[in-house]
């Protein structure tokens, strides 16, 4: 099992905007039924935050990624750096574009099957990787809360600002559910997820109420603490290359206990024209999103990319079954990156890869999960078969 050594001590931050009567509340009515909770005099609801990615670490990691990416042939910039506050805002606009069907389709699948998901995996803890605004996740929170077992939500994202905002919104909307936000990189920090239990742990410490209810399910294991449902939505799995996907799924599977489950959202192969349109919308929002990575480098590494000097490209790669996003240098140009002490020369029409978005079949999803030690428990799609949700459990 994974050892737990948080890089930084968790801290709590107060949530503005909703203030119960500070003098009256006590722990007597704590709906979670947790034993031994120290009495709090300050009743401001708090979210707990783990930071595995400090500003310094983020900077070092960005610098290393960009040096590697700008000096490779062809050039290639790693996608997680799209998501600063502006990037997350632009992504949010993408999800509302007429051409961008995945969010609406996934929303439809969740609406149709959230109750069934909660029945199959009545989790005490819902973890969401790459959580962003966690909008669709409310469907899962609603369904899990209805089972009476849910006590904690753990959103996990690299973009701290969006993460904390979403965490606070959810804390306010779901009284009695605690929010434990994690700022981290899901390719590096999965071993530090809250609730990872040592192998010998019987789960008794996790809370009598939750353990009792989860343990009553006859499916897996006995005497466990609360189950964890890990949601990875939005087709973000497709933004990892095949080897990275394999490593990610294996890291997740390695720390699963019996009863834990993965809910994976993945976009499915379809008419390439629809795929390309989803990544090259007529309003140019995806183009702005793609170019935003250059603003991130300008701001954080002192580069002087001229955003007008790069055009957005989205192409379907049938062989690899992915959409590839690139930035094309519209002219010959030189770009300085001060923090890297580097000058990058671009030829006219040179294309730099920025992102892939892989598209799957139901079988290819099952095969990749199986290779990581996970087996499909359920698979659902929207009525048009555009997008799939897969519920997977340790094999
Ligand atoms: N789950 C949301 C958002 C998807 S966008 C939805 O379905 O709409 C992808 C999200 O993953 C962004 O919020 C981004 O910040 C986050 N992300 C991307 N790479 C990441 C990484 N390596 N580690 C953690 N979060 C990451
Ligand atoms: N996970 C999303 C997807 O692959 C992310 C995304 C949507 C994206 N549009 C994009 C990433 C454009 C880069 C560029 O569908």
TrEMBL record:
It catalyses: L-histidine + 3 S-adenosyl-L-methionine = hercynine + 3 S-adenosyl-L-homocysteine + 3 H(+). Residues 63-392 form the Histidine-specific methyltransferase SAM-dependent domain. The keyword Methyltransferase applies. L-histidine binds at residues 100, 239, 279, 355-357. Pathway: Amino-acid biosynthesis; ergothioneine biosynthesis. One of its GO terms (molecular function) is L-histidine N(alpha)-methyltransferase activity. It comes from the Bacteria. The keyword Amino-acid biosynthesis does not apply. Its EC number is 2.1.1.44. Residues 1-48 are annotated as: Disordered. It holds the Pfam family Methyltransf_33. S-adenosyl-L-methionine binds at residues 130, 136, 157, 185-186. Keywords: Methyltransferase, S-adenosyl-L-methionine, Transferase. One of its GO terms (biological process) is ergothioneine biosynthetic process. InterPro entries: EgtD_Actinobacteria, EgtD_Methyltrsf_superfamily, MeTrfase_dom, MeTrfase_EgtD-like, SAM-dependent_MTases_sf. Catalyzes the SAM-dependent triple methylation of the alpha-amino group of histidine to form hercynine, a step in the biosynthesis pathway of ergothioneine. Monomer. Belongs to the methyltransferase superfamily. EgtD family. This is Histidine N-alpha-methyltransferase. The gene is egtD.
């Amino acid at each position: 099992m994974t050892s737990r050594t948080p890089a930084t001590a968790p801290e709590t931050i107060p949530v503005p905007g909703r203030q119960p009567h500070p003098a009256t509340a006590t722990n007597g009515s704590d709906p979670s039924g947790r034993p031994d909770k120290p009495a709090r005099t300050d009743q401001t609801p708090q979210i707990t935050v783990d930071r595995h990615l400090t500003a310094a670490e983020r900077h070092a990691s960005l610098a290393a990624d960009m040096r590697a990416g700008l000096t490779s042939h062809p050039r290639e910039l790693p996608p997680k750096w799209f998501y600063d506050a502006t990037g997350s805002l632009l992504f949010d606009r993408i999800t509302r574009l007429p051409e961008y069907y995945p969010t609406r389709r996934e929303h439809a699948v969740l609406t149709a099957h959230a109750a069934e998901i909660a029945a199959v995996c009545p989790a005490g803890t819902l973890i969401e990787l790459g959580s962003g605004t966690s909008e669709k996740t409310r469907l899962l929170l609603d369904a899990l809360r209805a089972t009476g077992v849910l006590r904690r939500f753990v959103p996990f994202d690299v973009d701290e600002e969006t993460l904390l905002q979403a965490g606070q919104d959810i804390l306010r909307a779901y009284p009695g559910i605690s929010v434990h936000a994690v700022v981290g990189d899901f390719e590096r920090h999965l071993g530090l997820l809250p609730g990872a239990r040592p192998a010998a742990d019987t789960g008794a410490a996790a809370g009598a109420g939750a353990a009792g209810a989860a343990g009553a399910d006859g499916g897996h294991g006995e005497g466990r603490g609360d189950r964890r449902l890990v949601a990875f939505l939005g087709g973000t799995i497709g933004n990892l290359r095949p080897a990275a996907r394999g490593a990610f799924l294996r890291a997740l599977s390695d720390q699963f206990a019996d009863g834990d489950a993965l809910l994976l959202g993945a976009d499915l192969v379809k008419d390439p024209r629809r795929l390309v349109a989803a990544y090259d919308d007529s309003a140019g929002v995806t183009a702005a999103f793609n170019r935003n990575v250059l603003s991130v480098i300008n701001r954080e590494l002192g580069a002087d990319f001229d955003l007008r000097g790069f055009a957005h490209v989205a192409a379907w790669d049938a062989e690899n079954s992915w959409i590839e996003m690139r930035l094309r240098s519209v002219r010959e140009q030189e770009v300085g990156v001060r923090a890297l002490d580097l000058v990058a020369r671009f030829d006219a029409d040179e294309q730099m890869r920025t992102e892939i978005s892989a598209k799957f079949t139901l079988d290819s999803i099952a095969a990749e999960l199986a290779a990581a030690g996970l087996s499909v428990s359920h698979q659902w799609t929207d009525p048009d078969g555009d997008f799939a949700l897969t519920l997977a459990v340790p094999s």
